[in-house]
Amino acid sequence: MATFNPGNIANMSSKKRSGSSDDQWDQFAAAKKHHHSLPPPHAEDPAAALANARHEFGEHGGVNMSIEASATFTVMEPETMRRMFTGELGPDRDFFIYSRHFNPTVLNLGRLMAALEGTEAAYCTASGMSAVSSVLLQLCSSGGHVVASKTLYGGTHTLLAHFLPRACNITTSFVDIGDHEMVRREIVQGRTNVLYFESMSNPTLTVANVPELCRIAHDKGVTVVVDNTFAPMVVSPARLGADVVLHSMSKFISGGADLIAGAVCGPASLVNSMMDTHQGSLMLLGPTMNPKVAFELAGRLPHLGLRMKEHCHRAMVYATRMKKLGLKVIYPGLEEHPDHALLKSMANKEYGYGGLLCVDMETEEKANRLMNVLQNCSQFGLMAVSLGYYETLMSCSGSSTSSELTEEEKASAGISPGLVRMSIGFNGTLEQKWSQFEKALSRMQDSSSFNNKM
Ligand SMILES: Cc1ncc(COP(=O)(O)O)c(C=O)c1O
After folding, report:
1. Residue 232 preceded by cis peptide, ω within 30
2. Other CB atoms closer than 10 Å to residue 215's CB: what's the count?
3. Which residues contact residue 343 at a Cβ distance below 8 angstroms, ignoring those fewer than 6 apart?
4. What cofactor is needed (predicted)?
5. Which of 259, 204, 255, 199 is nearest to 230 (CA)?
6. Ligand 1 geometric centre to CA of 247 (Å)
7. Residue 288 Cα to chain centre, angstroms
8. What is the per-residue DSSP string for 107-170?
9. DSSP codes of every residue in 363-406
10. What residues contact 78, with CB distance under 8 A and at least 6 apart?
11. Could you give the angle at which helices 364-376 and 430-446 cross, rounded to 10 degrees?
């Protein structure tokens, strides 16, 4: 089946099937294509890389790309169908078969994600979890082995700890990703397929040393897969050496808390293998992104950089002020955070240090009381899981998104029972929201049940 280079999709003519090659539109599109294929002046900056990607116009000259909503595609001659199935004609020449395989709109979003993360190619999926599971199933076979950070999103941890061993005989050794000797020790050359970690971990906000971990893994021939959901724009793992970058696009990239989506960014050979009709995990398991969702997300990527800057700016200001109030704050932007210098050395300039912070209230009961006043007394934020929304979202990780972990696993991952994870929003003014925070805190301190407990 088609082995085309999804990274080369910039060479594709969006009007190929119209027949005419010399109409005005084609000339205009060609001029834009030429303009956008100039050497990128700031390729290292993700926003600059995104802006340098080819701009896809709508079918009638719309400034936005069109949505190709069709599930199936027709051909002019029967012979073309056979040639598409042998791989001779593929999406790089605007030949599409069926939308569970490549879809033009989803492919365009993938092209933007590849530009954002600096990878050769990317393809988008129905959810972040399907991006995680499809990549692992593509890179590992039965008997395969993963070395993974013990501080991961609860769903990913459970997939690795319970589902993959039972369903696929793929086992995982969990490590402290900051202990490089341990990582080296656990990788078994010839047996381990993948080193897996999050650039900034959910929920503890520990930061992984991407260049060093890539050196260790690559020395032993192991593929490095990094989940960058918590730090788009802030960190670019592939530019630091990672082979594959994953996203739950349901979070910051969407920004609207209204879509579930994922992305796999990596080498064209990986994306192609995932689409293979005989062995491809995306093609055969079918977690396909709806083209209407791809269209939505493509319109949100251009302001991701602006949004991240404001999420990160407010998180930094609030973390500093919360610390001054005597709260136990965890935020990698604070100088006393153990990974502050590391993050500073890896981060793209001027985006900040991430849009999430944690307040450790030590017990679940205190965590719940804090979230209750923050939502119900002062409207500082909403009690909800997830992140990247314009409103602040708060959840007690141990009893929500990390509740799949045993008490022992939570303790080992550094998830205190009172850890409140906050995804800092940017609606309202910074001072308005801060006064809501202060009001809620003083309400909590005033309440008689609270006295001497904080
Ligand atoms: C770091 C991380 N990776 C992956 C996922 C899974 O993403 P989705 O909910 O889009 O399937 C999540 C979801 O919370 C997450 O936080």
Report:
1. no
2. 13
3. 200, 207, 235, 332, 333, 337, 353, 354
4. pyridoxal 5'-phosphate
5. 199
6. 8
7. 17
8. HHHHHHHHHHHT-SEEEEESSHHHHHHHHHHHH--TT-EEEEESS--HHHHHIIIIIHHHHH--
9. SHHHHHHHHHHHHHTT-S-EE-S----SS-EEEEGGGTTTTTS-
10. none
11. 130
Ligand 1, residues 248, 397, 402: which to mutate, most atoms within 8 A of Cβ?
248
- Expressed in angstroms and rounded, the spacing between residue 271 Cα and the centre of ligand 1 is 20
Going edge to edge, which strands form the sheet with 329-330? 329-330, 356-360, 419-423, 393-396, 382-383
In this structure, what are the phi and psi dihedrals at residue 95, rounded to the nearest 5 degrees? -110, 115
161 C-alpha to center of ligand 1: Å?
16
Q: Residue 5's pLDDT is what?
A: 55
Ligand 1 centroid vs 9 CA: distance in angstroms?
28
Instruction: Say what the pLDDT of residue 107 is.
Output: 98
Report pLDDT for 26: 43
For residue 28, the model assigns a pLDDT of 39
Residues of the chain with pLDDT under 70: 1-43, 448-454
Integer Cα distance of 290 and 310 in angstroms: 29
Within 286-385, residue ranges assigned H as helices are 291-300, 304-324, 340-346, 364-376
Does the beta carbon of 229 sit less than 6 angstroms from any atom of ligand 1? Answer: yes
β-strand partners of 420: 359, 396
Q: Which of 127, 151, 153, 227 to mutate to test the pocket of ligand 1 (most atoms within 8 A of CB)?
A: 153
- 93 within 8 A of 237, measured Cβ to Cβ: no
pLDDT digits (tens, 9 = 90+) for 143-158: 999 999 999 999 999 9
* Rounded distance from Cα 250 to ligand 1 centre (Å): 7
Q: What is the pLDDT of residue 404?
A: 84
**Whole-model pTM?**
0.91
Residue 4 has what pLDDT? 54
- Whole-number Å distance between alpha carbons of 223 and 151: 19
Collapsing DSSP to helix, strand or coil, 52 comes out as helix
3-state SS, residue 213: helix
- Cβ of 170 below 6 Å from ligand 1: no
Extract the tokens encoding 164. 């993959």
